[in-house]
Structure prediction request, 420 residues.
Amino acid sequence: MIQLIRGFKDVLPGEAELWQHIEQTAAALFTDFGFKEIRIPIMERTELFARSIGEDTDIVEKEMYTFPDRKGDLITLRPEATAGICRSYIQHKLYAADPVKKFYTIGPMFRRERPQKGRYRQFYQLDAEVFGSDSPYVDAQLIYMLKILFHRLGVTDIMAHINSLGCPECRPDFKDALLAYITGKEADLCADCRRRKDKNPLRVLDCKVPGCREAMASAPSILDHLCENCHVHFKTVQTALDNLETPFTIDKRLVRGLDYYTRTTFEMQTGSLGAQSAVAGGGRYDGLVKALGGPQIPATGFAIGFDRLAEIVAQAGKTYATDPDLYVAALGEAALPLVFAWISKLSETGIRAEMDFEGRSLKSQMKRADRLRAGHVLIVGDDEIEKKTAILRNMTTKAQDAVPFEGILEILRTRLGEKE
Ligand code: AMP
Prediction:
């Protein structure tokens, strides 16, 4: 038997309804906040990710699915969506009439990480990006929108962790201070950090290896090195979040080691996930559009880990199954064509109707209706055909009554149409 690839997974019926529910809730909310959906390819030129995510990151160094296509061009399965959205924004000059654009997208990402609980090699992200504004209010709005999404999905155990990364004006000063702190501690760092520290000391702050975390425990804080503009920007994000009653904690260890990341950076964390506590991550990247060959246009955004979000929402125990509203038990040759037309017409108008095509006994059809968790069963046998009335049974209350054939579709639509 051929099995799926390690780190990949199927989303089976049962779980897929929950995924649809999350997608629909997010799409409706993001649309209300002015976001438009954008769909970008799953594969891009490798160079796009190398440039946007950075050559010396774990993702680019060891996690990308990269291969030459048949002509030898290097292509990569996208490890995240921001790079592709930026590429599209620049390529189609979406900034031309009005640079302010808000996009969201939902889809699979690929990273060859070590598979473990909550970590897959194909995983899904719900991604939102805002181009064309460097206002702190846009950052605050993204965090607020995330909070509202989680609340609508019944996830209230959620906390925004925020930090500022400064800008090209104040970050060099912080990098120097960080490098001075690291000097002399090299022996305590992992091999990756020893190699990366000179080029990018922020990566050391970001490293998850326990030895590195310990060595960096009392490292200088970027918040003590922000320039006046960045300081005011970060304060404004905080005041805006306070005004929106959105709780947050300042986490000075939250950094992203890439040069184009600027100012606000954030993560949404939950206690419901154990070790993999971050369910969304985001921040400002005012330098990326330019770094990818576009104009100097600021941007900010986030990515939600869809698989993790689905896991938390599933913990609430609510089912989103699409059980049949009606199961029609047809008994005998005469009933079949009649009933077949009924279930087809009912399904067409939004009543989920099923029937048995195999001519089984009433008993086994009732069992099947039970297994499918049908709300009602309609029984149509020779007797019913003769009397021109069917029997309708409510599978929850077990009450049953007769329904005349005359106008039966309308009667069923009225009686079954009011879904919870
Ligand atoms: P990142 O793009 O690394 O900032 O990740 C954003 C979010 O995507 C994280 O907070 C996770 O929830 C999720 N995520 C990242 N990598 C994986 C993975 N390998 N498997 C499942 N979810 C992931």
Observations:
- Residues 15-170+226-314 form a domain with the BirA Bifunctional Protein; domain 2 fold (CATH 3.30.930.10).
- The pocket of adenosine monophosphate is lined by residues 80, 111, 113, 118-120, 123, 125, 278-281, 303, 305, 307-308 (CB under 6 Å).
- The longest helix spans residues 15-32.
- The chain has a mean pLDDT of 93.
